[in-house]
Specification:
Elements (H helix, E strand, L loop, with lengths): L1 E5 L3 H13 L3 E6 L2 H11 L3 E5 L1 E2 L2 E2 H9 L6 E6 L7 H6 L4 E4 L5 H9 L2
Parallel strand pairs: 1-2, 1-3, 3-6, 6-7
Antiparallel strand pairs: 4-5
Helix pairs in contact: 2-3
């Protein structure tokens, strides 16, 4: 599985990349905003894109929408340090496959969400 991580925290991007790579998920790219996410998706064609809901000045929901307009639309999973309940309606209305709290991020949890589609 090839993964793109979109998060404004370099520390999180590095930690998540290391953890996923060790478990057999190839992190093919990193991005920290909408423009980079769309560009990396177009260049790299990842199997799944992890998008942080809180991207500083930008919203991960907007990133998910922008990515959804790509052809073909990639599989997006929203991530956050916040609870899923904090964003339940927005998550449900988004084109994302699902949501993972950052503390529960793992290769198995990613594979489970992608497999549901």
């Amino acid at each position: 599985m090839r993964c793109l991580i979109v998060d404004d925290s370099a520390t999180f991007r590095d930690a998540a990349s290391s953890m996923l790579e060790r478990a057999g998920i190839s992190v093919v790219g990193l991005a920290c905003n909408t423009v980079e996410a769309v560009d990396r998706n177009h260049e790299l064609h990842p199997d799944v894109i992890l998008v942080d809901i809180d991207l500083g000045a930008e919203s991960g929901f907007d990133v998910a929408e922008a990515l959804h307009r790509a052809s073909p639309a990639p599989s997006v999973i929203l991530i956050s340090t916040h609870s899923e309940q904090d964003f339940a309606d927005l998550i449900a209305d988004s084109p994302a496959l699902g949501f993972l709290p950052k503390f529960a991020l793992s290769p198995d949890s990613i594979r489970r969400i992608v497999a549901r589609t």
